[in-house]
């Protein structure tokens, strides 16, 4: 995990650590924060894949979101496996990915329901679906963390 702590986290002045260094060190030890950071990266993958599906493949906003979810869940699986839950037991990769993807379906239901309502009834979200993706992702975050921690990446 230490390779993920930013370089400035160890900075000192004389014998005293900088307050930002202590705060950064504590925050990076927070598994939930690391999960949220990976989730933010996953939201960016989700958004990029959604725009690719819509503008590149000609899919509508609803079926394009299925494609973007698969891209995002793959990204978040590998990032969480390495960064958030690096100390967890390792299973067979394909099986662990499948359990992770399945465990994220509850969060996806919350996420997608809010997304669908927003792109359907809020003109700004319809024109800029990234807004709905971000709000939906935030809605599913807590559920997804609990599922990942308890079902997929159990303590070793």
TrEMBL record:
According to the entry, every stretch annotated as the GtrA/DPMS transmembrane domain falls at 34-153
Q: Which InterPro entries match?
A: GtrA_CellWall_Glycosyl, GtrA_DPMS_TM
Q: Where are the transmembrane segments?
A: 32-53, 65-85, 97-124, 130-148
UniProt keywords, alphabetically: Membrane, Transmembrane, Transmembrane helix
Membrane topology field? Multi-pass membrane protein
The record's Gene Ontology cellular component field reads:
plasma membrane
Give its localization.
Membrane
Please classify the protein's predominant subcellular localization into one broad category.
membrane
Name any Gene Ontology BP term.
polysaccharide biosynthetic process
The source's superkingdom equals: Bacteria
Record carries keyword Transmembrane helix: yes
Q: Which PANTHER family match?
A: PROPHAGE BACTOPRENOL-LINKED GLUCOSE TRANSLOCASE HOMOLOG
Say which family it is in: Belongs to the GtrA family.
Q: What is this protein called?
A: GtrA family protein
- Which organism is this protein's natural source? Oleomonas cavernae
The organism's taxonomic lineage, starting at the top: Bacteria, Pseudomonadati, Pseudomonadota, Alphaproteobacteria, Acetobacterales
């Amino acid at each position: 995990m230490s390779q993920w702590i930013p370089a400035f986290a160890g900075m000192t002045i004389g014998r005293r650590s900088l307050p930002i260094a202590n705060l950064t060190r504590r925050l990076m030890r927070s598994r939930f924060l690391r999960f949220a950071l990976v989730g933010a990266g996953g939201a960016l993958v989700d958004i990029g894949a959604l725009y690719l599906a819509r503008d590149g493949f000609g899919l509508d906003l609803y079926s394009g979101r299925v494609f973007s979810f698969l891209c995002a869940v793959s990204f978040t699986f590998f990032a969480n496996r390495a960064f958030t839950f690096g100390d967890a037991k390792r299973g067979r990769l394909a099986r662990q990915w499948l359990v992770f993807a399945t465990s994220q379906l509850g969060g996806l239901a919350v996420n997608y329901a809010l997304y669908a309502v927003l792109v359907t009834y809020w003109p700004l979200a319809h024109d800029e679906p990234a807004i709905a993706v971000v709000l939906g992702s935030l809605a599913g975050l807590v559920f997804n963390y609990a599922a990942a921690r308890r079902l997929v990446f159990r303590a070793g």
